[in-house]
Amino acid sequence: MSRFNISTNHPIIPNSQEYTMEKKYVSIHSEDRDITRFPNSADFEIELPEDYYNVQSIQLLNWAFPANYDTFSILRSNISMSFKITDPYNPGKYESNNPLLNVIFQALYNHINDLYFFTIASGFYNPIQMATELTNKFNDAVTNVILQYFYDNSTTIPNKDVLLQQFIKQGYYNQFVIVYNSVEQNLWFGNKSSNFVLTNQNQLKLSNTIQTILCNLEKLPESTNWGLPYYLGFSLCPAYANASTINPLSGEMIYPRFYYGDAFYLTGDNGYWLKPDPEYKGGVVYYLNAPSKINLMGDSYIYMEIAGQNNIDETSPFNVSKFTIETNQTNGIVNSSFAKIAVVTTPISQWFDYSSEITKVHNPPLERIRRLKIKLRYHNNQIVNFGNFDYSFTLIFHVFRSQINRNYNIN
């Protein structure tokens, strides 16, 4: 007993350097954060129920996340696109005396060097929905130009009101057709009368407020996912339409066709998805197909960061810079995240998973943990947007409990 200090009323009990391992399970819910301080549920701090001492390791046990993400959104900079009509249908070329078609030609010819811009709605699409959205957006962009021409030349267009009502009655401009080839899994773009080009490089000019938001995002530069055309299967190069040709054997016009079946469901079109309107006499159709398959799935993984507990080294998107040109070092990030979570479903749903192998080990053990700072992001460093949907996950804290030295010397 001589090892004990007996000169005080509070003797120090020596540590035997023997411990028991205890698992503490901590369930964390995003809705339990201080919403006034942390409005975004993907980036917050939270107070734990108690102090955890001698923490030897932390592991992600299970999780439940909502699949409500937007593959296309203004924050991803992939909802805008531009195109040109390089050779609008000219009724005079084919000796047509249709006054409405002549007005349309004049309107489009006045904008032959201009870009037509449009934006799609933010959200998640299936291929058929995307083809329909693009068809309507392409035609709507041209319609706005024609309506503006009617307005600007209201005093010089003969029978302007009659022609305008005729234009409205026929459903405005409707010459663009975009369809999805379900066998090749790519999009085909067509116009029933005019030649066009997809620029694939020009994005919509956003407002100053939105532009400021995008510039302040902590998003890494990427050579992929650079805009809507990339998701639709295009590169940065412009895509030019081809004109339909005449079969030299039959003398008939060759129109684009899907040979696997109907292009539009329940129509009996036998795969012919683009033919000229009867009113456009002598005209030809123009079309092109996306060289790559359409990509509508979005990000495959979410990275969870916990300040002080990150244990995963992560590669970073390559970019041409002074650093990458002059050195052979990596631009990857050491200890960038705590866990990598696969997105295993599409909206709208909820996915559950468990038993992550990722564990952060501390040697020596952490003296004390009471508060966690959590961040959920994609590989490009963009914060996940869960909106009003909540999520939850469980952490395991492996803690050491010291044992009292119970050895005695007996004389």
- The fraction of residues in strands falls at 25-35%
Distance between the termini: 11 Å
Q: Describe the biggest sheet?
A: 7 strands, antiparallel
Gyration radius (Cα, Å) is 32 Å
Report the uncertain regions.
none
Q: What class would the helix/strand composition place it in? A: alpha+beta
The total of helices stands at 6
- Work out the number of β strands: 19
Overall structural domain count: 2
What is the helical fraction, as a range of percent? Answer: 10-25%
Globally, the shape reads elongated
Topology as a string of helices (H) and strands (E) = EEEHEHHEEEHHEEEEEEEHEEEEE
Mean pLDDT: 87
Notes on the structure:
- With 411 residues, this protein is an alpha+beta fold.
- It folds into two domains: 15-69 and 299-404, Jelly Rolls (Sandwich), CATH 2.60.120; 80-289, no CATH class.
- Helices cover 16% and strands 33% of the residues.
- The chain is built from six helices and 19 strands.
- The chain has helices at 99-110, 127-152, 160-169, 208-216, 228-232, 322-326, and strands at residues 15-29, 43-67, 80-87, 116-119, 176-181, 186-191, 195-198, 239-240, 242-243, 245-246, 253-254, 286-289, 301-306, 312-314, 333-337, 339-342, 349-354, 359-377, 392-404.
- The strands form five sheets. Strands 1, 2, 13, 16, 17, 18 and 19 form a seven-stranded antiparallel sheet that branches. The protein has a four-stranded antiparallel sheet with strand order 4-3-7-8, with helices on one face. Strands 5-6-12-9 form a four-stranded antiparallel sheet.
- Strand 5 and strand 6 form a beta hairpin.
